[in-house]
Specification:
The complex is a heterodimer. Chain A is mostly helical. In chain A, 74% of the residues lie in helices and 3% in strands. Chain A has a two-stranded antiparallel ribbon with strand order 1-2. In chain A, α8 packs antiparallel against α10, α8 packs parallel to α11 and α13 crosses α19. The C terminus of chain A is likely disordered. The chains are: A mainly alpha, B mainly alpha.
């Protein structure tokens, strides 16, 4: 079974080509081609999961071929504990998104072709271990996203799409500059991330700092970290449901993944020095600020978007804790946020498809005639609130436990979000689902089989990871503990510890 | 404690209710449609009663063991093993969790049975039993979890079920608001609780034993003595104080008690099970579970005792003025929980657990009795519209009376044994003020309880004619449960008799291994003579009689008008008490409203300032590009045009050189050659 990562990355491209060859009006054929491509990814992902060696920090399923030898650029794919969970998440979320897109009726061919291209871009980002290749995938992902929001989006789709595009492009430029810097300042120029990481000591501290900050801003835009987050609510509000699912489920993780892979992996000393403020303080701000903003929203989807801002803050805070618990919690939180937020956006999509609006105060009493929908939403909401027994609880506990020793004050604020989140979630649930029956919505059908098909797998994963988080943690632990140790033993340690 | 007995049955006590919940939630609607509500009731009650049967069996297994080794462990699988924190999904039975398990499955089981009668007309019968089963599951996880995070899973799980059951009738918005309030207020406490766990973990980590497994914490916590914590407090005091804040949320103590009275919006069996007998005692259970930590922190203990006794008294004063039959009992519960914390705070853990158990009996009986009354009254809860019900509902009346006598502390009812013990311990441990508060609360308790008995069951019926026509005793499924709990309210106290009666304290002896840490024994140490004990019993009895007597004068003989008291200070005092000291209004004005405003300000800041900067940047870029556009159009393109113009102009001028005159050309050529020669000559020089 060679070239698994190549296959999982490019299978969507094959699907895309097939779709492009299809006649325009064969909607069902196009949909099922996309589904088949996504399903193939799922199968490979299961194989990767089952055959992943949890005891080593080494790169697994590696594929390495020279690509542009004169510039030391390789085609280099591989996964380790840092990226394996994201590969799995991408396969899962893309699969769900394809089915969530079956309701799209406008420009089906173009939509699914772009969706699959996006899939390849995202998968490639997590699988690539050559910085140049990573950057290519990073950019590849951008274009389909722009069109998917800009063509299939809501009324202000063009504004949102351009905002997303330009903001991310700004980040990309910074990443590009840092990447070239890392390449040229290395005694043996290379784009190979594993070799860049091995040579970490060869950069001067000042260069590390500059490169670190450039990379951080580039990735922070994607997370999105305060104050670079305002593209997210706009993009979400305008994007079609399945695209919101991908956006929140996978795209945001590329930011924190980049920080772990590039900032932490390649620039450990600067990471040690700067993480407390860039990740700790900003992460805490994200957590609290996102929750405060969410409380004040009246657009259901915007509220969920702000909750993403809040929950991604935990990832940052966890990384900044410099403990095994914190960093494991952070990556687990990336996965858990992916599944839970995907559920939340799917659920918003359900009611938007029926009512054609998302005004929270315009609903009420839906639980009385859509009990399955209300029950599923309840499950997702409590999962998002970090209710013990569900997945996000484990990751939030690990993050906060991991952060407590070094950053007690930030942890206290971070933990307070449990109250704030309960506040906006329960209040929203009450306004949309509870209370007297609203006659306007009585005729709405409960969840369809297709909707259940997209939601149930996510719900099951959320519950399983709550009682058996080791199903995922065991994949991460070895690599992350190692990464944490690298950062902890970097020369910047003394400076950072002073804070 | 070193060598737990590994067993494989404990998880079944927990898993059975979970299976019940899963069946009810996933298949409930179709089961109910096809096989009727009886099938749902059978599943719902069956799983809990089966759990009770296993618990009783386990109890006999346990007492067959040597007291020092009464500790059984059921270790299922590794839950988390990260960064030195190794936690299992594992459940343990020791004497304390044994007592709690018996209460939860036993009292819980009969309340399940009662619910089959009480909720019989409810359409979503299955949903009710689903939540009730899930609650039982969560409560058992809380009680039996072998580590503190697993306890927290149950701790929040019961909160979820409480939320869902308070808002069970969700078409009425007020019910759901009460549910939200319960959950959010509890989350405030949970915030403190989780921080306590973080601190404890790292504290133990620093002394070389990173763990949150309860028995390991018990083993190593003495190493934490004298270690500094945060905010200038010793580590153990910091941890236990935060834990106690968590307990004030779950167990409804000042300042977080406000959710419990509102929680009465839920169906009455829920009030009996969750908001009286089991869930709200979780805080006391937690403190007793971690007695070895609390006993190490005298400052925390003082806070616990003070808050407990203040709550006992404060809530009792509110209970005096309530007219809603369930609200009286709600404030009574807050007050009784205060007693339990008083016991914990003075180090009399066993007395606290004992009162927890007797309270579970008599308060469940009282709530279910009030449910029986509400059932008969067609949903009416205002006691001013009741009266004379003892003639129509004798079983309800007699059991309610038995439970009332128990809560008031009349001998030999169960409350006498448990409450007197607490009062005595408070005084004996040198806290006269705390004793005085709880003593005063005892009088108030007798007053408000007999006020309730008289208003509900005595005198003339004050409701509508139609209501009177429908008055009936409840069906056997309900009344039999009342009898069981009524009997337990009477005899439950015999497990721990006062010393002057007989030296018979099996309950305390059973729990002894749990409260055997060095610090706990040191805190508990106190000498009380039988004479003192008798004197305090007599004092307490006198107080209870006084309360009863005043209620009797006011509400039965009606020789003393309540208005004489309510009109004191122009009625201001009464109005304040009637409105529960306006605590809800104060919280609303001081915390909730400012928070909502703050959220709106933040969102405005986000949309206008942060995003404003983004849009401004974009606007500036657009503006700049407009300028560069202008520059391009006028300057760059201008230059281009200028160039072309100049060229054209130049061309036009040069064209005039082409005159066609040979002479002119020759002159020009000559001039050119001369110029070239000249230049070359100059360059050579």
């Amino acid at each position: 079974m060679d070239h698994l990562l190549t296959i999982i990355t490019f299978v969507p491209i094959v699907g895309m080509v097939l779709i492009l060859l299809c006649p325009k009006d064969q909607h069902n054929l196009i949909r099922w081609i996309a589904a088949a491509a996504a399903f193939a990814q799922i199968l490979i992902a299961i194989y990767l999961y089952a055959n992943f060696d949890t005891t080593t920090t080494a790169i697994q399923f590696a594929e390495k071929y020279p690509w542009v030898p004169s510039y030391h650029i390789n085609y280099f794919l591989g996964v380790d504990g840092i990226s394996i969970s994201m590969v799995l998440l991408t396969a899962l979320i893309c699969f769900i998104s394809v089915f969530a897109s079956f309701g799209i009726e406008k420009g089906v061919k173009g939509y699914f072709a772009l969706l699959l291209l996006l899939d390849t871009g995202m998968m490639g980002v997590f699988a690539a271990l050559d910085f140049f290749l990573f950057y290519i995938f990073w950019e590849v992902m951008l274009l389909p996203m722009y069109f998917l929001i800009g063509i299939w989006g809501g009324p202000r789709r063009e504004y949102a799409a351009i905002k997303f595009f330009l903001y991310t492009l700004l980040g990309s430029v910074l990443i590009l500059l840092a990447m070239l810097g890392l390449y040229y300042y290395n005694p043996t120029p290379t784009f190979d991330m594993t070799r860049l990481a091995a040579n970490a000591g060869s950069y001067s501290l000042n260069f590390q700092r500059i490169a670190w900050i450039a990379l951080f801003i580039g990735f922070a835009i994607k997370i999105p970290a305060f104050p670079f987050h305002t593209w997210l609510p706009d993009a979400h509000v305008e994007a079609p449901t399945a695209i919101s699912v991908i956006l929140a489920g996978v795209l945001l993780k590329m930011g924190t993944y980049g920080i772990l892979r590039v900032n932490f992996g390649i620039l450990p000393a600067a990471s040690h020095e700067l993480a407390w403020i860039a990740l700790g303080v900003i992460g805490t701000i994200n957590i609290v600020y996102g929750a405060l903003c969410a409380m004040a929203q009246t657009d259901y989807k915007k509220l969920i978007a702000y909750s993403s801002v809040s929950h991604m803050g935990y990832v940052m805070l966890g990384i900044a804790g410099f403990t095994a618990a914190g960093i494991n919690g952070a990556v687990l939180q990336m996965f858990n946020h992916g599944t839970i937020t995907a559920m939340l956006f799917l659920l918003v999509g359900v009611i938007y498809d029926r009512a054609h609006h998302r005004e929270i105060n315009g609903f009420g009493g839906l639980a009385s005639h859509m009990p399955i929908y209300a029950g599923m939403t309840g499950l997702a909401f409590f999962a998002a609130m970090g209710l013990p027994g569900m997945s996000a609880f484990i990751s939030e506990v690990l993050v906060l436990l991991g952060a407590w020793q070094r950053h007690p004050l930030m942890t206290v604020f971070g933990a307070s979000a449990a109250i704030l989140t309960a506040g906006y979630m329960l209040w929203t649930y009450q306004r949309v689902y509870l209370g007297p029956i609203n006659d306007k919505y009585v005729g709405f059908p409960d969840l369809s089989a297709r909707e259940l098909f997209t939601l149930v797998p996510l719900a099951v994963i959320v519950l399983i990871l709550g009682v058996y988080p080791h199903a995922l943690l065991s994949l991460l632990n070895t690599s992350l503990v190692h990464l944490n140790q690298v950062v902890m033993s970097a020369p910047g340690a003394a400076v950072a510890l002073a804070h | 404690m070193e060598n737990p007995l590994h067993v494989g049955f404990i998880h079944w006590i927990i898993v059975l209710p979970l299976i019940g919940a899963a069946i009810n939630f996933l298949l409930g609607p179709s089961i109910q449609r096809r096989m009727g509500k009886g099938a749902i009731g059978l599943i719902g009650c069956g799983v809990v009663l089966a759990g009770f049967a296993i618990s009783v069996w386990a109890f006999f297994q346990m007492i067959a063991l040597d007291p020092e080794h009464r500790f059984m462990l059921d270790d299922l699988w590794t839950w988390m093993n990260i960064g030195g924190m190794k936690l299992d999904i594992a459940f343990w039975l020791d004497p304390l969790s044994m007592v709690m398990t018996l209460i939860v499955t036993g009292v819980g089981g009969v309340i399940h049975i009662y619910s089959t009668g009480y909720m019989h007309d409810e359409d979503s019968f299955w949903r009710f039993f689903g939540w009730l089963n899930l609650f039982t599951f969560s409560m058992l996880v809380l009680v039996l979890g072998d580590n503190l995070w697993l306890m927290f899973v149950g701790w929040e799980g019961v909160g979820l079920c409480s939320f869902a059951l308070i808002g069970f009738w969700h078409k009425v918005l007020a019910n759901t608001t009460a549910g939200n309030k319960a959950f959010i207020v509890n989350r405030v406490g949970d915030w403190a609780f989780v921080i306590a766990l973080y601190t404890l973990f790292w504290g133990l980590s620093a002394v070389g034993h990173p763990t949150l497994v309860t028995r390991e914490v018990a083993q190593w916590s003495h190493l934490l003595a004298g270690r500094p914590g945060y905010l200038g407090l010793p580590l153990v005091s910091f941890v236990t104080l935060l834990m106690f804040i968590g307990a004030t949320g779950k167990s409804a103590q000042i300042p977080l008690y406000v959710w419990l009275p509102d929680a009465m919006a839920g169906p009455t069996p829920v009030s009996a099970l969750i908001h009286a007998a089991t869930m709200v005692t979780a805080g006391i259970y937690m403190a007793c579970r971690l007695n070895f930590l609390f006993s190490m922190a005298p400052d925390t203990m003082l806070v616990v005792a003070t808050i407990g006794s203040l709550t006992a008294f404060f809530a009792a004063t509110i209970g005096v003025a309530q007219n809603d039959i369930k609200k009286v009992l709600a404030y009574s519960t807050v007050s009784q929980l205060g007693y339990m914390f008083t016991a914990v705070g003075v180090g009399a853990y066993a007395a606290g657990v004992f009162h927890l158990m007797t309270h579970a009996f008599f308060k469940a009986c009282l709530f279910l009795g009030s449910g029986s009354v509400i059932h008969a009254m067609g949903g009416e809860q205002d006691m001013r519209k009741m009266g004379g019900l003892r003639r129509h509902m004798p079983i309800t009346f007699w059991t309610f009376l038995a439970a009332t006598l128990a809560i008031c502390g009349f001998p030999p009812f169960s409350g006498f044994m448990s409450k007197d013990e607490i009062l005595l311990q408070a005084f004996a441990h040198g806290h006269p003020l705390i004793w005085a508060l709880t003593y005063g609360a005892a009088g108030l308790t007798a007053f408000y309880m007999f006020r309730q008995v008289y208003m509900t069951f005595f005198g003339e019926f004050r409701g509508t004619h139609e209501q009177e026509h429908h008055l009936h005793e409840s069906p056997p499924s309900m009344s039999m449960v009342l009898v069981i709990l009524g009997v337990l309210s009477v005899v439950g106290g015999f497990l721990m008799l006062p010393g002057f009666v007989a030296d018979f304290k099996p309950f305390e002896h059973f729990l002894e291994p749990v409260f055997s840490s060095e610090f706990t024994r040191r805190v508990a140490e106190v000498q009380i003579s039988h004479g003192t004990e008798l004197a305090f019993s007599a004092l307490a009895m006198a107080m209870a009689f006084a309360g009863w007597f005043v209620a009797d004068l006011m509400y039965r003989r009606e020789v003393l008008s309540p208005e004489r008291f309510s009109s004191l200070f122009n009625g201001e005092a009464y109005r304040i008490v009637l409105n529960k000291y306006y605590i809800d209004e104060i919280y609303q004005a001081v915390i909730v409203n400012p928070y909502l405003v703050f959220c709106r300000v933040t969102a405005w800041f986000d949309a206008n300032i942060i995003d404003g900067v983004v849009n401004l940047t974009a606007a500036i870029v657009v503006l700049l590009s407009w300028f560069t556009g202008l520059f391009d159009a006028w300057i760059v393109d201008g230059l281009v045009n200028l160039t072309s113009n100049v060229t054209l102009d130049f061309g036009a001028r040069v064209r005039r050189l082409q005159t066609g005159s040979i002479n002119g050309y020759l002159y020009a050529i000559l001039a050119g050659v001369m110029f070239i020669l000249l230049v070359r000559a100059m360059l050579r020089v």
